[in-house]
Amino acid sequence: MQLLSLSEQDNPEKKLSALTLHILTDIESSDCAVIFKELWAISERNSAVKKAVDEYYQKLYAMLFEALKKAAPKNCEEQQLDNAVVILLPFIEGYCITSSNLKMSTKKQSEQLGVVLYNLLS
């Protein structure tokens, strides 16, 4: 996500859809998703793993905040960005678990999520 660049000429809704497509595509193709499912389970019984997972989510929050800030409409306020991240982050984790059973394509999901985020950030 840190390497993702969004075109300056795209409108915010397209930027948000591109961002979510990048995230959702990465989740579907990444072995990381498999590993994290195991880490979540272990973190419930191991405080050191729980601490590492919590630190990961703090970093992920910050990365999502910055990515949304770059894609958001110009008049977007920090509270709106926070609200969007608070919705997006659990969506990402849930998508990691449920994506193989959804009947909507990843592209369509990303477009829909881009609309939702745009509305939150406008």
What's the total count of β strands? 0
Counting DSSP H or I runs of 4 or more residues, the number of helices is 5
What is the chain-wise order of helices and strands?
HHHHH
Average pLDDT works out at: 86
Written description of the protein model:
The chain has 122 residues and is mostly helical. The protein has one domain. Helix content is 76%, strand content 0%. The chain has 5 helices and no strands. It has helices spanning 12-29, 31-43, 47-71, 78-98, 106-121. α2 (31-43) packs across α3 (47-71) and α3 (47-71) packs across α4 (78-98). It is globular. It starts with 11 loop residues before the first helix and ends with a helix. 20% of the residues are buried. The model has no long low-confidence stretch (mean pLDDT 86).
Sum this structure up briefly.
The chain is an all-alpha fold.
What keyword list fits this structure?
single chain, 122 residues, mainly alpha, 5 helices, globular
Walk me through the topology:
Elements: H1 12-29, H2 31-43, H3 47-71, H4 78-98, H5 106-121
